[in-house]
Each structure stands twice: as C-alpha cells, then as structure tokens.
Specification:
globular, mainly beta, outer membrane lipoprotein receptor (LolB), chain A
Length: 215
C-alpha cells in the first residue's frame, strides 16, 4: 500500500497537469470577476486568466476518466488549503478512497479506513501541477470556437505542453466557461507514458467539505 499511494497520486497529477495553472495571485472563483478573458482573441491570455481563477478557488470537484495501460475512473474533491478526497469509481483501485488533510493521509480499502504513517516529505498532489513551472513548455495555443458543457456556453482552446512532473509531452483541449472564466472540461492526449488520454469534467459551483474519516 505504501507504494500504491504515490503511484495513484502521480497518475492524478498527470491527469490535471495539462492545465498548467500558474500560481500567480489574483483572479476570482465564485464571487470574483467573471468572463473568459478576451473571448478567444488572445488564446494564451485567456488560458492564463482561467489559471488565475482556478488557483484561487476555495473548492472544486473533478471527475476523471483515463485510458492507457490501465483504466482510471476517479472523483477528486478539493477544499482549500490542503484537503483532498479521491474516490476510485472504477478501473485501477476501484472501491478505494483516499483523504489527504495536510500531511495526514487516510486510505479506505475493503470498507475500512486506515491512517498512513506521516512523512516529512511532501507527496505529489493535484495542485503541484498548477505551479509556474507548468507554463514553461506551453506552445501552439489556438482558439477553436464555442461549444456547450452541461448547457452552458464555453470557449474552446487547444495547445501543447509537457507535464511539470515527469516531462511527459501532451496535447490538450480545454473548455473555459464564457460567463465564469473557469475551466469546465479538458481532454488530454499523452504521447508516451502509462497514461494515453485523460478527460476531466469540473464542478466549481457545488461546495466541498472534507473531514477526517470516522473510524
């Protein structure tokens, strides 16, 4: 199990790595400024604007569907500043859950929760992908027009990059809400590594609360 946790978290990190959201200050989230930047006139500016909003969110949920050497089906919930709840809905690790609160990690297998031994070495998490390093390999940004996600209008962009962890090249398609300016969906295609494609659908409106499990 000690080996399984870093591998699982790494896969989750790779899945969200395509967004390369930077750690720049500002932005909004619920209650902040709205709108998707330039509306497609400057794709890079729009993606960075979405990055600022996303990194400032106090909570979000993401449903992840990955294909590659193994199937990945997860729901990831986040609550600021350092709380994650990862549920494995199918594929590798189906039925398992992980709760991370700061340095504490709880793992549920076989219907039972166990606390993982603490460590002074930070483990990779989803937000590790949102650092400024993620912007370094950005290229070929394009505006692809408008679409709808769950009945809401979104602007669609494509680009290429490499993951902050592992330097895996990928191409990405991202849907950014016209009104919210926040990512709504992404589809990532990797050219090498265990993961070949990841689709992520975001819920940035439903509040998230994460607490230690009750034994």
């Amino acid at each position: 199990m000690k080996k399984l946790v870093p591998i699982i978290l790494l896969l989750a990190t790779l899945g969200l790595g395509c967004k390369y959201f930077s750690s720049m200050q500002g932005g909004g989230g619920p209650g902040g400024e709205s709108g998707a930047g330039t509306g497609g006139k400057d794709p890079k500016t729009d993606i960075i604007a979405a990055s600022r909003k996303f990194i400032d969110l106090k909570f979000f949920s993401a449903k992840m569907d990955g294909m590659g050497q193994t199937e990945i089906k997860q729901q990831v919930d986040y609550a600021a500043p350092d709380r994650y709840h990862i549920s494995y809905l199918g594929g590798t690790g189906a039925g398992m859950e992980i709760i991370m609160i700061g340095k504490d990690t709880y793992i549920k297998t076989g219907g039972k929760w166990n606390k993982s031994p603490g460590s002074n070495t930070p483990m990779p998490t989803l937000r590790d992908s949102f650092t400024e390093n993620g912007l370094k390999g950005l290229s070929d940004e394009k505006f692809e027009g408008s679409d709808t996600v769950d009945g809401k209008t979104a602007f669609v962009y494509t680009y290429k990059n490499v993951t902050p962890t592992g330097n895996y090249p990928f191409s990405c398609k991202i849907w950014i809400g016209k009104d919210s300016g926040l990512p709504m969906k992404i589809v990532v295609d990797y050219t090498n590594g265990m993961l070949k494609q990841m689709t992520v659908n975001y819920d940035t409106e439903t509040p998230v609360t994460i607490a230690p499990p009750v034994s």
